[in-house]
Amino acid sequence: MEKNFDVIVIGSGHNGLVNACYLQKAGLNVLVLEKNDWIGGAAVSRELHPGILYSNCSYVCSLFRPEIMRDLELPKHGLQIVAIEGGTVFTRDGDYLASYRNYQAKKRELERFSVKDSESYSRYSRDILKQCRFIQPLLMRTAPDPASFKFRDLSEMLYLLRKVNDLTASELADTIRFWTMSISDFLDEYFENEVIKASLAVSGIIGTALGPMSPGTAYVLLHHYMGEVDGSIGAWGYARGGMGAISKALTSSFRAMGGTLLNNSEVEKVDIRGARVRGVILKNGDEYLARNVVSNADVKRTFLKLTDPEHLPPNFIKKVNNFKIRGSSGKVNIALDSMPKFPGVSDNNPCLKGDIHFTDSIERMERAYDDWKMGTWSRDPFLDMMIPTLTDPTMAPPGKHFMSCFVQYCPPKVGGKNWTKENKDAFGETVIQQIADYSPGFKDKILHMEVRTPKELEEEVGLTEGNIFQGELTFDQLLFNRPIPGYAQYRSPIKGLYMCGSSTHPGGGVMGAPGRNAAVEILKDLNLPDSDIRDAYEVL
Amino acid sequence: MIQSKEKKDRDTTFTKPLFRSPFYDFFAAQETEGQWYNWNGYKSPTILSDEELEYFSIRSTCSVFDITPLNKYRIVGPQAEDFLNKLTVRDVTKQNVATVKYTLWCDQEGFVIDDGTLFRISDNDFRLCSQEKHLPWLIDASHGFDVEIIDETKHICGISLQGPTAASILRLLGVNGIDNLKPFHLFQTKISNAPIMISRTGFTGDLGYEIFMKNNVANKIIERVWKAGSNHGLTAIGYNALNMARIEAGFIVANIDFISSDHAIRPNRCRRPDDLGLGWLVDLNKGFFNGKKAILNSKLEDSSAFKIYALEIDGKEPVEGSIIYYNKKDEVGTVTSAIWSPMTKKSIALAQLKLGSSKSNMENLWVEIYSLKELQYYKLMKKVSIVKPPFINLARRSACPPANY
After folding, report:
1. Domain residues of chain A, as ranges?
2. Which residues of chain B lie closer than 8 angstroms to A438, CB-CB?
3. For each successive 10 residues of chain A (540 residues), what is the average pLDDT?
4. Beta strands per DSSP E along B10-111
5. B339 CA: distance to closest CA in chain A (Å)
6. Which residue of A has its CA nearest to B133?
7. 20 to 30 A from A454, CA-CA: which of A25, A126, A239, B120?
């Protein structure tokens, strides 16, 4: 087996694979090392019950950039994203608020709860769209270093300032408010109905160790919406074959270009000699050499575990230590013998084909967050539940189903102590009970269940504290401050060591932009052309 | 365990997302080669049988068009007049009871949110009709006023009778007072004991009336009207026919000829009343109204904004969506509405153009047309002249009493 490569990528998460593909495509000889038996990090589908394919971690494709799919020919390698038809929030009074793809149906459903809010929804969508138009072009560009006087930083700062300058005074005020306010306050400016607000607040808290009333959550909503408002059909939906289909297509594209990918190869250390990278050393003692190493792991894992501290400035280590990466969510994956019944909903109602929630007020979400602050999982958790097998025929035999439950809030430690098996079972039971409250006979349909607390997410996937975004999406950790001021351009203090995970700009979600942007920077350092990397499409 | 509610009508939300007006069955029965569209959440006809014949009924006999999907807001209370005076740009204190005024309202930056018609039913009772929805805006803007705002859209329905024989049909229906009803006036009366409100208004530039009523009398009224019109060429029409008539009349439509500031995503799409050619509506002598300061300030600026113009174009090709050039090379704007006008025998259009104030820019304008002939486009450059709207001016529109046919 060859031991010498141009670039080694640590971790086969979607960003690692995107990065590896672009570098291989540019003519470099790239090796990807994956610690697990399976490929894909948190974009993975495994058959944990015979015949039923899971989306074990991430469960919906909302942000994956169409430019990347096209550059890397992912459709040719089998990737297909299919549209989601609806969504619903069940309410405690036995009703539900559905959302539908059909705009008129969606507005009409809102009207059932509030005529005024149904009308306000247009203004709300417009304002979100305005913000997305401003922020979305920044996703596929390296954030400028405001303290640098390099030509490209100055010109990127200028680009940012021009964009700011294009805003009217009131828009600028709105933008700044948007980046700092809570999702609850933001929604209050448009809506009066609690259920409607709860249904919209969801995107503001997913993956974030903040409550809907915490400042900064309005931006998180924007981050989730960006894929949805993209306007390019098929950008938002289910990956056919589960989220692992994305990793599969990336792997296939990478190998077709001649790249090398090894699983069961956990990196122990980045080998650093004389302030520059020499390669990596695996847990099993194997060594691979490369003058460039790219870490798909989060910033804490990369610099506190994989890199010896002697090579890093103390200030840097301190900042990495203080990077906010608090785990806030768990995942319960369920194989079902048949479709669960929700008596209030007709069988032909498409609202079950999307995200299903049981939290009908912001107050309940905030109380769920209170439990997390007290160091335990929420007694009345917030579930983002999906049954992709209602849409995707490839994941389960006809009539059988896979159900994905994203659960918030769930702390990295329980009362300051490590998770025990009893804790984990009780957490799973809390989730199951909430579903069963709305779906009689639910428990009898369960064939198999995978419960993942932040502990499993950290141990199995490698996400520190189980944080799905590799670091929270608060304004202090965004743009040129992500992950750390001065190191927002995918480079590290060590020559030849790069980052490409969601810890970097523009952040989490199965987006691929960090991996792509890192590839641009690496090619720049190697004086290689990046002409095969497409610029971002125009927004709207 | 949560007890589920009955499914009942909740399913219609997704099985039949478009509302049906109380007149839906009547219009659907007139359909031979129908096309339908979503007008403000209602399933509405674009064409029922023949677009051109439907249009000619407006100009030659009489048309009936379902205006139920219009947004209808009832504004009642001791301070209704004060509130509307703050909301809209015209002086509402000068609007007499039993009249209708065309008006518009702006945001605080003086950009037009929408235009519409304001019916003064009594001293403290108004109805505001508009193309776009504004309930949150009306409620927010009414803060501190002793008024009640009721969205009547789903409870009040309406038809529009437009065309030279419209008055005769109403006479046959026994509507007294039609002869004395002047344009932009209204009165309450009954047809077959069913109460209606009738106004001499419309969107066609022709003789015409709008009739509003409660949903429960809709069937009875439309039946009577249809019968009364049987010898007067009464024809049910869809939106396309109406659209032809309204372009000839030079009327603009929100989010077709201009973007409502409520919808605009790009700030440079917003328009002030002057830009829409509707500066004459704005009463700068009255007290505070929303957008007044910004409108006053904008008058001091050298206006370089896009404005709406009425255009006549050489040749017979319709120019919908075309780009207008100065001196055949500099882009100055886009056509927003256009037809071949059967009444004037001209190709006419409404367009947003950025011409500045210089007179000379108004000449030497050209429109680029891609004319499709058997799968091949022919690129044409046609001369454009700016004209003063409306494109047609019909004496019968305002004749009082209207002629009897």
Report:
1. 4-44+64-81+239-323+471-525
2. 2
3. 94 98 98 97 96 95 89 96 91 94 92 95 89 83 85 85 79 86 96 97 91 93 74 69 97 98 97 95 97 98 96 96 95 98 92 96 97 97 97 96 97 96 98 97 97 95 95 90 94 97 93 96 96 84
4. 35-39, 42-47, 62-66, 71-76, 99-106
5. 29
6. A119
7. A239
